[in-house]
Amino acid sequence: METVIILLAGALLIALGTRLIHRLNAQHEARIAAHHFGDPYPSLSRPPGHGNPRPPERISDRRPTGTWP
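and the corresponding structure tokens:
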């Protein structure tokens, strides 16, 4: 009898957890749907003086320094 009660309690906890996760996902999806993201091309409307940053320096572009054998 104890085994049946434990199995029922476990099934109930799994069902409640599944329901909670489902509700949280629905709430999150509604929040995402309500959010209006920025312009489709934000790089065209940058303020003056805020152009594209320099690309990162590549290792192959570096000149060797020092004297290592």
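(Above: one complete record from the training split.) The mean pLDDT is 79.
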